[in-house]
Design goal:
2 copies of one chain form a homodimer. The first copy, chain A, has 5 helices and 5 strands. By secondary structure, the first copy, chain A, is α+β, with helices and mostly antiparallel strands. Chain A folds into 2 domains: about 60 residues, Winged helix-like DNA-binding domain superfamily/Winged helix DNA-binding domain (Arc Repressor Mutant, subunit A, Orthogonal Bundle), CATH 1.10.10; about 55 residues, Dna Ligase, domain 1. In chain A, the strands form 2 sheets. In chain A, strands 4-3-5 form a 3-stranded mixed sheet. A two-stranded antiparallel ribbon of chain A has the order 1-2. In chain A, helix 1 crosses helix 2 and helix 1 crosses helix 3. The interface between A and B is large, with 38 and 38 residues. Strand 5 of chain A pairs antiparallel with strand 5 of chain B, so a sheet runs across the interface. Chain A binds a DNA duplex (25 and 25 nucleotides) through helix 1 and helix 3.
Chain lengths: ~130, ~130
Amino acid sequence: MKYSKQRELVLETVMENPIHPTADTVYAMVREQEPNISLGTVYRNLNLLAEQGILRKIPMPAASDRFDGRTDPHYHIRCSGCGQLFDLPLAELAGLDEQLKNLPGFLVTGYQILFEGLCPECAGKYPAELKR
Amino acid sequence: MKYSKQRELVLETVMENPIHPTADTVYAMVREQEPNISLGTVYRNLNLLAEQGILRKIPMPAASDRFDGRTDPHYHIRCSGCGQLFDLPLAELAGLDEQLKNLPGFLVTGYQILFEGLCPECAGKYPAELKR
DNA sequence: ATACATGCAAACGGTTTGCAGAATA
DNA sequence: TATTCTGCAAACCGTTTGCATGTAT
């Protein structure tokens, strides 16, 4: 892997903005410092950095993938109010690995969870009953 | 909702084939009985039936959505070997709801899990170490 | 008659890719 | 110089949509 200014900016942007940006968001942000960067380059670098394990790609069902500077295992929650993606301060799911080992037939190697709900800020704004 | 032969076939196909087919697969299957049906109609009906809760749409990260005739809560596992999606015979995740209620700030309303691993058949074929 | 559904094809959004030229090592 | 990278634009894939026509109520 050879150095490039573009890649440095892409990485820096994801690292310094823990907002789990989409490729498009990264593109917009990097463009402020490097107006000629192309969206393709942003994608290429994000994917490359994710492959190397330097950052993480969070595939989102029915939405743009997001990228995360944190590479340690942790959960995410999408806020139905503002649409943002947050880290969820939830401990490892206890007992799950246990259950998974004892499944007849299947060999589970991993899983992805995406939580849905309201972030602290939106939980305040919305009434008791929550909608989509 | 008005009756249509096309919708009936789409529903029937999903119900009778518990393989969690994609829209494309449903299209191919229905076409054998109704060669003139269009892919758009298949999509429209699958979405409509899912909205009504008659069947379930399973959004798949970085892949085509799948549809499920089973509407009761249960988990799925994607086999890394053959790519098929299976029901996972796993009990409700115990204690998770507990943990979720006590999260500071966040109000969790739901979650989706997708497991990854090897199905019984593929688990036999592959050696001990498993890859992607 | 009036909804609602269909087939078709075009449009869409997110992402990837082929290419010729530019930058790094 | 050899390799990797870039910008650009076109291609791609899964899905949705507009429209004129057809069908169920």
